[in-house]
Amino acid sequence: MPVTELGTSERLLEELRGWVEHETPTTDAAAINGLMDKAEAGLRAVGAVIERIPGTKGFGDHLVARTPGAGKPVLVAGHLDTVWDHGTLANTIPFRVEGEKAYGPGIYDMKAGSFFAFHAVREILRQKVATRSPITLLLTSDEEVGSGTSRALIEREAAGACAVLIPEPAGGAEKCCVTARKGVGRFTIRVQGRSAHAGGNWQDGASAVVTLARLIGQIHALVDLPGGTTTNCAPVWGGTRPNVIPNEAGCEVDFRVATLEDGARIEAAIKAMAGPQPEGTTVHVEGGLNRPPMEEGPGNLALYAQAKAIAARLGYDLPKQHRGGGSDGNFTAAMGIPTLDGLGCSGAGAHAEFEHILWRELAPRCGTLCELLETLG
User: Fold this and answer.
1) CA-CA-CA-CA dihedral for 231, 232, 238, 242, to nearest 10
2) Domains located in the chain, CATH noted
3) β-pair type (96-98, 49-53)
4) Whose CA, among 96, 124, 260, 285, lies 20 to 30 Å from 228?
5) In this predicted model, what pLDDT tens digit does every residue of 110-151 receive, in sequence order?
6) How many Å apart are CA 101 and CA 20, to the nearest integer?
7) Which PANTHER family match (predicted)?
8) Per the confidence metrics, is the pTM higher than 0.90?
9) Average of pLDDT values for 12-41?
10) Are strands 101-103 and 96-98 parallel, antiparallel or unpaired?
11) Cα(170)–Cα(165) distance, rounded to whole angstroms?
12) Measured between alpha carbons, how far is 300 from 295 in angstroms, rounded to an integer?
């Protein structure tokens, strides 16, 4: 049991509701900064040392809050942005409680978990609870689009940490935390062809669509389900009219890999598709591996063993899983820093209109995170 008094699930849900009802689409820096202001004010009020990093490239700010102490800190990192546009709360997913479930845009991914982290750090400071190591809380604004403006900050903070905790949502019906994640990569493929009349001058054209279709087949052939490698080509575009040989076509490619070696292999295979093609077209390829794999090492497993023992004392089981989706934990684990992910609330529906948490689990799940923050080091 954590030394820190965190309150009941009812109490946590009441404050979490305010975070959920403050809509924060990744594309609206001002909206995200408004919620960041709220978190900053709460942490400043109890003595946290605050660093606010202004947003860049149209994204919101990032917030670093530190507790006193010597030695390597425990880093707990979450994001405030969601995939949901303004108006979702009013028109699609109103905040509501139905039995064991609390619904709302971003409540599962990952406002509940980010609120956990904020609440635990705030209460540790408010109640002057002694922790084995200092704590660094990091809240970012662009995770849902790849963490392009926050990655360097995440890696900077992780480099000096003894452990990293990621309160992304707990997964599946088993309510698992996460000890490994696939690496995630993206490519954009553009094909330049040559237009011609599809009837009278067919031989003068060079179909960008034909080239793209061939390449999509090759990319699909890279899939290795037993080995953990998947590819997906979507969206796909090309051509203007049925009677015109298409001079342009393209697609985006998502790929997932279990190891860095597989990531390098897939990157090399897709980049090799660039250049002049047999059909008389030319292919341009942009992109690569965005998040390295979070591989399950001994450091991650040691953190998991501690979390599982804490959860048992709090009255629930905490299985582990490997997950196909990426998170900011991919970056820190790839640096060799022990990382445990999926420490947020149970529920379902990330990025879906039935997004919800199992709200009665707020207190015990937050308790596990809090005791890890008190005892790691």
Assistant:
1) 110
2) 9-181+294-375 (3.40.630.10), 183-291 (3.30.70.360)
3) unpaired
4) 285
5) 999 999 999 999 999 999 999 999 999 999 999 999 999 999
6) 14
7) ACETYLORNITHINE DEACETYLASE (PTHR43808), BLL0789 PROTEIN (PTHR43808:SF9)
8) yes
9) 98
10) antiparallel
11) 13
12) 9
